[in-house]
């Protein structure tokens, strides 16, 4: 390869350079973790812009998180003196929102449409089911929500869903009713953002052709986790279907991914999209990147060895030039408290070694694990930040405040109405609300518009509430976003209400944080920036924009006026959208040097100097739901692969003999994944243990399921050093890992043992019957 001329292209290896400078056409980069996929994608955008092959308005780039989108934009603006505004960089949801904001009318939405997050969606469904007297036992609301989301991910409207049983028909009917309710209230859920924008592209030729011409380069990171609908959406933008066959257009699509990091199958992700992409987009360039730049070889070897146990793989290699580095450290604790305590100590040492706290991440399989870790960090006064979990914008007090704000924007938003009609309490009871709902239904109006129909004292209270909202709406005209929020916090009575609550101080702080969030949204988050629509000339003059439809808005920034009416989105509406879509990770403590806590799922694409993977236990990681089925176990292994490959320098794996989860103490054996790691890369900080024997711990009898309460007793082991398990065999003589025979289920492997004496139970995996918990006082298990 000739010496790269542009400084942009320095520090790329030959394969990366080839990928960055690919000629036009569709391409796939399939490569393992830390090989520079994201870096290549970003650098390619910069290179395309710098060499004048495309203007910012011709770029569409999809990232997996908002955080990744922001980072990409920041890198690009640092690399090039460009006007980044016209670029469409974001998550699928973010991009679809942007698209629907620009074309709300064509999409059949009100200009002020609001977004329902998963919580809002569930409460909307519950409300609907109650209204239509649907038996919640038979059709749990969560399941209905799952069903609707799944149908939308597959691009199916109610009429498209196949039904076989009465239950199916009922679910489809609920889906239909839910859609009508959302439409009436002017709200869309996450799945709807995607599906609506897909349908608009599919059904409206001028719009589709416009965007096909506009986006010369479409780049998608983490392609292995796209679902069916997202893939179909990309196809809409980059080709046509002629006589049932897809024919790629002349824009260039670059897909970047790693099949070994596909971890969202449970949410509809389809790793098969990669193979379909290669075939349907007639991919001519497939590039593999095999050099890992992230991790030392002990870490990388561990990841490689682990993932080699998966059968379904496309097959890739990954090597590193960095030396072995530190060994991967393994720690066993007696309890989850002790595990957290050890971690805090270890972090202290790392800080002494000069590592920033923000370069330390604690990863866990399940959100429920974070509480104990948070407590330990808090007690030790170590600053930390939790990603995911309950987002800032999902906290109850914030949702209440947002509901007031949403009603100002859209009086028909019944979900918001119901959230606050009696919050703070104003003497409106469940009966009156039911009455109001009946009246609204009868009149075909929103709750807001139907209050006059309810008489008596209840009616008066309801009217007073609606009047309060309407007055607030009047009062907030012409105010800045900050002033609007402050006014609403005062006049809604929220602040006053929390002032009188015992634990209200935190909530008031969060509400004040909401004002800050709005402030930073206006100044730095891009709202102010986006407010200046991209100069039309700049876009029209670009070589890539020939033939753009002049009747369609191309200044489709959130604030850009409607092409016909000049109508623009209010700052409040823009902020509410932001609150629904933004993960809120940047709120509170942003910029502080804090330890990062998150689930493994949330860590995808990120990297840290030091990573702790906690709770490495059978039933937790791999998760118990995955143990009986090969496919899910492979997904768990990919998840572990993602976790390991987040670490640059140091990796710690820990497991605990006991753990409080969901109010129960569980006795655990260490994860099978330990057996799949290369012994030479590991360093056991505690003796490598041979399985768990409850009686050796003095847990005597009767612990079985200590619901709640055993907080105090577990705490004893908090500070004590881990007790290496002794070899004394319990009375039943079983050990985990042992092969046993059961009269009915045949041969199986003991996974875990719990309790002693009459309470003793064993968890056994029977290849033919799956995983079962057996009471040893009843079940006859004989070692084979
Ligand atoms: P993942 O699969 O985890 O998303 P990835 O393939 O996207 O990983 P990147 O995050 O792009 O990998 O890169 C991993 C790290 O290696 C980053 O810190 C990146 O800056 C660095 N890196 C990538 N390529 C090079 C290179 N040629 N020289 C030096 N560092 C590089
Ligand atoms: Mg990446």
Tell me what the structure shows:
- The protein has 784 residues and is of the alpha/beta class.
- Among the domains are: 7-104 and 194-293, Rossmann fold; 114-185, Arc Repressor Mutant, subunit A (Orthogonal Bundle); 298-312 and 324-387 and 597-695, 3-Layer(aba) Sandwich (Rossmann fold); 739-783.
- It contains 27 helices and 24 strands.
- The strands form six sheets. It has a seven-stranded parallel beta sheet with strand order 13-14-12-15-16-11-19. The chain has a six-stranded parallel beta sheet with strand order 3-2-6-9-1-10, sandwiched between helices. Strands 23-22-21-20-24 form a five-stranded antiparallel beta sheet, with no helix packed on it.
- Helix 4 (92-102) crosses helix 8 (190-203).
- The chain is globular and about 75 Å long.
- It starts with 13 loop residues before the first helix and ends with a strand.
- Mean pLDDT is 83; it is low at 525-546, 553-561 and 691-729.
- The protein binds adenosine-5'-triphosphate and magnesium ion (MG).
**Separate helix tally:** 27
The strand order across the widest sheet is 13-14-12-15-16-11-19
Class computed from helices, strands and strand pairing: alpha/beta
CATH architecture of the domain at 7-104 and 194-293: 3-Layer(aba) Sandwich
What's the overall geometry?
globular
Helix content: 40-55%
What portion of the residues fall into strands of 2 or more residues?
A: 5-15%
What is the rounded distance between the termini? Answer: 63 Å
Under the CATH scheme, which class of the domain at 7-104 and 194-293?
Answer: Alpha Beta
Number of strands: 24
């Amino acid at each position: 390869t000739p010496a790269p001329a542009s400084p942009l292209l320095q520090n790329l290896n030959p394969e990366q350079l080839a990928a960055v400078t690919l000629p036009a056409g569709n391409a796939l980069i399939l490569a393992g973790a830390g090989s520079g996929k994201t870096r290549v994608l970003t650098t390619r955008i910069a290179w395309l812009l710098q060499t004048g092959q495309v203007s910012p308005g011709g770029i569409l780039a999809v990232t997996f998180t908002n955080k990744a989108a922001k980072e990409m934009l920041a890198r690009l603006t640092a690399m090039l003196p460009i006007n980044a505004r016209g670029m469409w960089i974001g998550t699928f949801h973010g991009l679809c929102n942007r698209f629907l904001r620009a074309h709300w009318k064509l999409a059949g939405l009100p200009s002020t449409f609001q977004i329902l997050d998963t919580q809002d969606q569930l409460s909307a469904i519950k409300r609907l089911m109650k209204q239509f007297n649907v038996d919640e036992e038979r059709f749990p609301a969560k399941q209905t929500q799952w069903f609707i989301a799944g149908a939308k991910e597959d691009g199916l409207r109610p009429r498209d869903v196949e039904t076989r049983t009465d239950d199916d028909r009922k679910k489809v009917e609920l889906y239909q009713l839910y859609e009508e309710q959302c439409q009436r209230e002017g709200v869309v859920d996450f799945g709807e953002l995607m599906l609506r924008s897909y349908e608009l592209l599919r059904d409206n030729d001028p719009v589709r052709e416009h965007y096909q011409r506009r986006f010369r380069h479409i780049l998608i990171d983490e392609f292995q986790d796209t679902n069916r609908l997202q893939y179909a959406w990309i196809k809409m933008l980059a080709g046509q279907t002629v006589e049932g066959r897809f024919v790629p257009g002349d824009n260039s699509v670059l897909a970047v991914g790693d099949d070994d990091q596909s971890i969202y199958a449970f949410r509809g992700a389809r790793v098969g999209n990669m193979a379909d992409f290669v075939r349907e987009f007639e991919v001519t360039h497939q590039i593999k990147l095999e050099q890992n730049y992230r991790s030392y070889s002990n870490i990388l070897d561990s990841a490689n060895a682990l993932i080699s146990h998966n059968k379904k793989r496309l097959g890739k290699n990954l090597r590193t030039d960095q030396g072995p580095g530190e060994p991967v450290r393994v720690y066993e604790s007696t309890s989850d408290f002790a595990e957290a305590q050890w971690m805090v100590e270890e972090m202290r040492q790392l800080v002494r070694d000069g590592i920033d706290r923000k370069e330390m991440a604690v990863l866990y399989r399940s959100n429920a694990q974070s509480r104990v870790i948070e407590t330990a960090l808090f007690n030790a006064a170590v600053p930390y930040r939790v990603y995911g979990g309950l987002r800032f914008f999902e906290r109850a007090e914030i949702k209440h405040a947002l509901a007031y704000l949403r009603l100002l924007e859209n009086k028909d938003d019944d979900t918001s109405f119901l959230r606050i009609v009696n919050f703070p309490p104003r003497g409106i009871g469940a009966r009156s609300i039911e009455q109001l709902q009946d009246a609204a239904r009868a009149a075909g109006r929103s709750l807001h518009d139907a209050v006059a129909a309810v008489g008596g004292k209840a009616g008066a209270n309801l009217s007073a509430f609606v009047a309060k909202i309407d007055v607030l709406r009047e009062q907030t005209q012409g105010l800045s976003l900050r002033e609007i929020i402050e006014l609403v916090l005062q006049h809604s009575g929220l602040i006053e209400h929390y002032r009188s609550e015992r634990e209200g101080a935190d909530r008031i702080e969060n509400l004040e944080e909401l004002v800050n969030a709005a402030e930073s949204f206006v100044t730095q988050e891009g709202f102010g920036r986006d407010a200046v629509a991209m100069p039309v000339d700049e876009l029209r003059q670009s070589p890539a924009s020939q033939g753009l439809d002049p009747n369609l808005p191309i200044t489709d920034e959130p604030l850009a006026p409607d092409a016909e009416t000049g109508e623009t989105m209010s700052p409040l509406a823009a902020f509410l959208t932001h609150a629904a879509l933004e993960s809120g990770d940047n709120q509170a403590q942003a910029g502080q040097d804090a330890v990062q806590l998150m689930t493994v799922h949330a860590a995808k694409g990120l990297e840290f100097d030091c990573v702790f993977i906690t709770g490495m236990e059978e039933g937790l990681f791999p998760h118990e739901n995955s143990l009986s089925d090969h496919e899910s176990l492979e997904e768990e292994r990919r998840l572990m692969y993602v976790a390991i490959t987040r670490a640059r320098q140091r990796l710690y794996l820990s497991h605990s003999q006991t753990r409080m989860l969901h109010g129960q103490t569980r006795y655990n054996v260490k994860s099978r994944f330990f057996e799949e790691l290369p012994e030479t890369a590991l360093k056991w900080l505690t003796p490598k243990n041979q399985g768990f024997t409850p009686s050796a711990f003095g847990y005597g009898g009767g612990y079985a399921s200590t619901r709640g309460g055993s907080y105090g007793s577990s705490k004893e082991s908090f500070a004590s050093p881990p007790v290496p398990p002794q070899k004394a065999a319990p009375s039943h003589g079983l050990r985990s890992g042992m092969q046993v025979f059961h009269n009915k289920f045949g041969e199986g492997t003991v996974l875990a043992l719990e309790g002693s004496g009459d309470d003793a139970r064993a968890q056994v995996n029977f290849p033919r019957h799956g995983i079962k918990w057996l009471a040893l006082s009843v079940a006859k298990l004989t070692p084979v």
